[in-house]
């Protein structure tokens, strides 16, 4: 059944004051261009490429945990996402991918759409794990090829110095999986070479060799040569100035939550893979105080980006269109005829009043 939404609509060409009609996909956007939007704001659904959990559930726990997290994040405006693993034994990663495949075959009607897996590890530098469990191993292209038979894999995060001879990168390219660099102590030259091959960056600044006036590492290479990079805009992983610096240097900087089981939940104890983590004061941490993912949701990310000075249209695109473009998906992350009807409506405080995923209301009008 065709429905319509009126308001300030963020289209690929800019703001339109008018009406959007849709069923499962967007039929039309009609109206007049406008320079200064007024509420209600109609935005594309958020696309989260890096999420470990939410609603008390950790993605490594299986299909029901993924569905639980999908429901939680949909309530906060995420309409499509990549369930993300942690570094773990091979059999646990096999089970994670099997669970992703199960949910993709039978998705929750009231949750975000699962795009495919993001494997964060296990081919990470064991000396730069951050909150990743201690199961890092050298890159193994044959293992990657075996995993592609279990589920759709959209992204893999790896440390380039763990990939001798670039065999893993070659396998990722052949499988059309996005290569991202992270949890790495690589030097500038290694980072530059991978970026020039088209790699992206996982959670810029965090868990990587740094940026400096000499002796640069992966972060410095990202600033000099990066095109696409994740950033966690919770204002805990990074202060505002770091986000703004990354925005100036890297054209397609985009936001992710890196959310863990504590997202949308009260303070307390949760799981991240094989680790116990604690939520307190808006952050997720290991017992030693190390940040362990986040408790961020995408609606808060939007308000944070606007709060540090980004225009609403730019902030919204960096949480929807840019990550969709990175994944090569042209029918999500934008409000245009033919695109999937993933639509958000927000009031004057940038609070969600409606979430529509594939044409179906998830968060209904208030």
TrEMBL record:
<dbReference type="Pfam" id="PF01979">
    <property type="entry name" value="Amidohydro_1"/>
</dbReference>
<feature type="binding site">
    <location>
        <begin position="291"/>
        <end position="293"/>
    </location>
    <ligand>
        <name>substrate</name>
    </ligand>
</feature>
<dbReference type="GO" id="GO:0046872">
    <property type="term" value="F:metal ion binding"/>
</dbReference>
<feature type="binding site">
    <location>
        <position position="214"/>
    </location>
    <ligand>
        <name>substrate</name>
    </ligand>
</feature>
<dbReference type="InterPro" id="IPR006680">
    <property type="entry name" value="Amidohydro-rel"/>
</dbReference>
<feature type="domain" description="Amidohydrolase-related">
    <location>
        <begin position="41"/>
        <end position="348"/>
    </location>
</feature>
<feature type="binding site">
    <location>
        <position position="183"/>
    </location>
    <ligand>
        <name>Zn(2+)</name>
    </ligand>
</feature>
<feature type="binding site">
    <location>
        <position position="120"/>
    </location>
    <ligand>
        <name>Zn(2+)</name>
    </ligand>
</feature>
<keyword id="KW-0479">Metal-binding</keyword>
<feature type="binding site">
    <location>
        <position position="131"/>
    </location>
    <ligand>
        <name>substrate</name>
    </ligand>
</feature>
<dbReference type="InterPro" id="IPR011059">
    <property type="entry name" value="Metal-dep_hydrolase_composite"/>
</dbReference>
<comment type="similarity">
    <text>Belongs to the metallo-dependent hydrolases superfamily. NagA family.</text>
</comment>
<dbReference type="GO" id="GO:0006046">
    <property type="term" value="P:N-acetylglucosamine catabolic process"/>
</dbReference>
<dbReference type="GO" id="GO:0008448">
    <property type="term" value="F:N-acetylglucosamine-6-phosphate deacetylase activity"/>
</dbReference>
<feature type="binding site">
    <location>
        <position position="203"/>
    </location>
    <ligand>
        <name>Zn(2+)</name>
    </ligand>
</feature>
<feature type="binding site">
    <location>
        <begin position="206"/>
        <end position="207"/>
    </location>
    <ligand>
        <name>substrate</name>
    </ligand>
</feature>
<feature type="active site" description="Proton donor/acceptor">
    <location>
        <position position="258"/>
    </location>
</feature>
<dbReference type="InterPro" id="IPR003764">
    <property type="entry name" value="GlcNAc_6-P_deAcase"/>
</dbReference>
<protein>
    <submittedName>
        <fullName>N-acetylglucosamine-6-phosphate deacetylase</fullName>
        <ecNumber>3.5.1.25</ecNumber>
    </submittedName>
</protein>
<dbReference type="InterPro" id="IPR032466">
    <property type="entry name" value="Metal_Hydrolase"/>
</dbReference>
<keyword id="KW-0119">Carbohydrate metabolism</keyword>
<keyword id="KW-0378">Hydrolase</keyword>
<feature type="binding site">
    <location>
        <position position="237"/>
    </location>
    <ligand>
        <name>substrate</name>
    </ligand>
</feature>
